[in-house]
Amino acid sequence: MPTKTPTTSDFPNLTVTITHPSPSPTSTAPSPNILLLLHGLGDTAASFTKFAQALRLPETTIITIQGIAPLPFDLGGFHWGDDVSFDSATGALEMDAGFTKATQVLSGMVRRTLITECGYRLREIMVFGFGQGGMAGLALARELGIESKSATGAEAWDGEVGPISGVVSIGAAYSVDGSRVGKNRSPVLLVAGRDSVAVSDDAVRRTKLVFEFVEE
């Protein structure tokens, strides 16, 4: 059981908003579930918080996290990628930009804050990501299922590893450059339009190479 309700001060190196469930007249204990919201390319936590407030799920604390870096050239908004690149065919920002940095930041947040400080278990944590945030969420879920005892420094972790409650990814599949070693048992739901380029048949197959349970 969780022992502490997370607050914004628990995430000093991230910009987050926290949406609490409707208060229960019979309990002051921390909510038993966590939902992490990861916005899309060029969005902000403040904007995506409106979605969290509309959801306001029972017995669930929703943490909306802002991308790890601002977009350049006064484009506004934030992103989750290791770099910023443009599609040579369309000129649009490339969504699949590598997620090594985001994975380190997000997995550290889950492990140090939600698990160690607040007492949550992985099975009590779910991720909802939109676009590039969905890709970051899938990379995070995979990382949380990997043993990292051989790592050193800030990346070392000898606590719980395994599947999380699930990942819902809207309009994005697993990254082309993501590691495909082993299979993760976190349930995954991929949501996209019928003719989506980002969630093509190849992209779905790629995701199924990494995750054992994938629905679309």
From TrEMBL:
Residues 29-142 form the Phospholipase/carboxylesterase/thioesterase domain. InterPro entries: AB_hydrolase_fold, LYPA1-2/EST-like, PLipase/COase/thioEstase. Residues 1-27 are annotated as: Disordered. One of its GO terms (cellular component) is cytoplasm. GO terms for biological process: antibiotic biosynthetic process; monocarboxylic acid biosynthetic process. Pfam families: Abhydrolase_2. Residues 15-27 have a biased composition (Low complexity). Residues 1-14 have a biased composition (Polar residues). GO terms for molecular function: carboxylic ester hydrolase activity; palmitoyl-(protein) hydrolase activity. PANTHER family: LYSOPHOSPHOLIPASE-RELATED, PHOSPHOLIPASE_CARBOXYLESTERASE SUPERFAMILY (AFU_ORTHOLOGUE AFUA_5G09340). Belongs to the AB hydrolase superfamily. AB hydrolase 2 family. This is Phospholipase/carboxylesterase/thioesterase domain-containing protein. It comes from Penicillium arizonense.
